[in-house]
DNA sequence: GTCTATAGGCAGATAGAC
DNA sequence: GTCTATCTGCCTATAGAC
């Protein structure tokens, strides 16, 4: 399903997305995208008036795609721990050909971003934390996850841990390096036992 | 100590470092630095022939400063857990006025960096992992840290966890957000108890 | 929708005077 | 060491023909 020829706007977004994920928002140009697609820069400006608008469209599509992926995970995985692993797999899937998570990359470029893009980046992290916190609470209620303290704080640790794992593993071009860290985060922080910040009794 | 007037080269490095940490390597220009110091771009080129050389000098100084800081930590903190906390504090100190860790930021810009800078970034992460792994092993031997599995993998999780925490917390301009995650990483991953990846018996 | 042509600005960098 | 002046090239963006 959904394998139509893909119109120009979509092709532009595809190429731009890959370039931003690999090189950052200040590391690619309209010329890069135009050359790769064999069209003129003016054609890009027809579809996206300026780089700011292109960036917004990029974020909008990425966030929507990610939201759909989370709904899929909720539908497919019954267990909270499995949901966390599926969540980490979403990141692992992105971590190909030198790509960062789009929002992780834009978080690095944050100081130079136009305001609408900034808001999208923050919203992305917020949404992810909310989803993760719900999964964590759900797992704790069901007994498949054990942790002490705030689910929201664990959620933040997972988001930033996965973003950081991509950031640091990318220079090594090493998927296994990312995966090992992701496993430690998920299995160590949220499953089986986790040490509370101070003086908590250990689970099990 | 060491509060001499600071020569031009040092002032250039100071300004450039802050700009790179805040805006990324592709988000600042010679003109930015020159304007802020009230000198000409040509003067910058006298001290650092090109942006690549400036970047290398930036990395060199940053790595040396970080290495000294680790030696200080080793000298001041007797306990492995305290060393980890002091290590996290090094990151927290950097996390001011919208700054990222220099190497975290350059990891994001990695695809666009000249080769010598790339090597410096990787070396920085390698050195940090080696130091952390030694602290972790030392703590395990002394009984102040408890974890199962490879110290090197835990070390990688800490490095990327702290880098990711900076990356994600920065858009919120929230130091507490960073600190909470750092505490969870250090106290949860390396102290007291930590769950092994699969089916391990829990410590304590 | 896509093109060519071009504007206008800023990037990194150099020459040569002081 | 630092300056002014300048170069060349790329950047984002627009105008107007097809």
In short:
With 204 residues, chain A is mainly α.
What does this structure look like?
- The structure is a homodimer of 204-residue chains.
- Chain A is mainly alpha-helical.
- The first copy, chain A, is elongated.
- The first copy, chain A, has helices at residues 8-23, 30-37, 41-47, 51-76, 80-94, 102-108, 115-142, 151-169, 175-190.
- In chain A, helix 1 packs across helix 2 and helix 6 (102-108) crosses helix 7 (115-142).
- Helix content of chain A is 70%, strand content 0%.
- At the A-B interface, helix 6, helix 7, helix 8 and helix 9 of A face helix 6, helix 7, helix 8 and helix 9 of B.
- The structure holds a DNA duplex (18 and 18 nucleotides).
Helix-strand layout with pairing:
2 copies of one chain form a homodimer.
Chain A: H1 8-23, H2 30-37, H3 41-47, H4 51-76, H5 80-94, H6 102-108, H7 115-142, H8 151-169, H9 175-190
Helix pairs in contact in A: 1-2, 1-6, 4-5, 4-7, 5-7, 5-9, 6-7, 7-8, 8-9
Chain A binds a DNA duplex (18 and 18 nucleotides) through helix 3.
CATH level-1 class of the domain at 59-187 in chain A: Mainly Alpha
Which structural category do the helix and sheet elements of chain A fall into?
mainly alpha
Mean pLDDT of chain A: 92
Order of helices and strands of chain A: HHHHHHHHH
Identify the CATH architecture of the domain at 59-187 in chain A.
Answer: Orthogonal Bundle
Global morphology of chain A = elongated
The CATH topology of the domain at 59-187 in chain A: Tetracycline Repressor, domain 2
Helix content of chain A: 55-70%
Helical stretch count of chain A?
9
Task: Outline the biggest β-sheet of chain A.
Answer: none
